């Protein structure tokens, strides 16, 4: 089992205030029991915005990659722990909430830079692009993080959004960086697949 102690130094290096893991098991959807309970989770770090108080920063490159790489390792490890291994993770997504003193670009730099997404994808055995969402807001801002299948993005049954909120984050000079994961498709998925639509047209 991965424990928080393993990542204490890494979290300190990005000035993390919280590491939050929210897990739900969907047992019933639409009044019908799921054939297999569907686990969905969001793992997130609440960190100090590395550019807070610096005004407009032209070059985000070094810091966004340092933070992105560190958080990808921490959040992937926690997700793997929740799902009992990488084989338990079927779908993923990424998201960020920027405190009011930050820019959306601060979130985009970390989420979409060359370190966070590619590294977290590799660590959980993914090959597909990762759906993403970013927003700015006060503590308690809710975000819906879209997910898709981790290796076959055309599998429509895995398209869903996982709602996530931390009541006391982000503070104005903080970022919430999140990784959303699902252990299967939507319960009772029956809208077809992008790869087979032409057969029913």
Q: How is the quaternary structure best described?
A: single chain
Biggest beta sheet attributes: 7 strands, mixed
Shape: globular
- Total strand count, please? 7
Looking at CATH, the homologous superfamily is BB2672
* SSE string: HEEHEHHEEEE
Structural class: alpha+beta
Top-tier CATH class: Alpha Beta
Which parts are unreliable, with pLDDT below 50 for 5 consecutive residues or more? none
CATH fold field value: 60s Ribosomal Protein L30, Chain: A
Proportion in β-strands: 25-35%
Count of DSSP-assigned helices: 4
Rg from alpha-carbon coordinates:
17 Å
Helix content: 10-25%
Question: What number of domains?
Answer: 1
Q: Compute the average pLDDT.
A: 94
CATH architecture descriptor name? 2-Layer Sandwich
First and last CA, distance: 48 Å
């Amino acid at each position: 089992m991965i424990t928080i102690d393993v990542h204490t130094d890494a979290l300190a290096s990005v000035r993390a205030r919280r590491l939050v893991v929210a897990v739900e098991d969907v047992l019933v959807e639409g009044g019908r029991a799921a054939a297999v309970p569907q686990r969905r989770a969001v793992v997130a770090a609440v960190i100090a915005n590395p550019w807070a108080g610096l005004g407009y920063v032209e070059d985000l490159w070094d810091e966004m990659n340092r933070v992105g790489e560190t958080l990808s390792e921490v959040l992937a490890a926690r997700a793997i722990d929740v799902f009992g291994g990488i084989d338990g993770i079927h779908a993923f997504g990424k998201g960020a909430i920027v405190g009011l003193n930050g820019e959306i670009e601060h979130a985009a730099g970390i989420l979409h830079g060359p370190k966070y997404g590619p590294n977290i994808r590799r660590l959980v055995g993914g090959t597909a692009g990762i759906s993403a969402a970013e927003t700015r807001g006060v503590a308690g801002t809710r975000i819906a993080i879209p997910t898709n299948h981790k290796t076959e993005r055309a599998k429509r049954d895995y398209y869903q959004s996982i709602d996530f909120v931390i009541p006391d984050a982000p503070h104005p000079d903080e970022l919430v960086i999140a990784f959303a994961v699902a252990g299967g498709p939507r319960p009772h998925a029956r809208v077809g697949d992008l790869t087979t639509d032409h057969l029913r047209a």
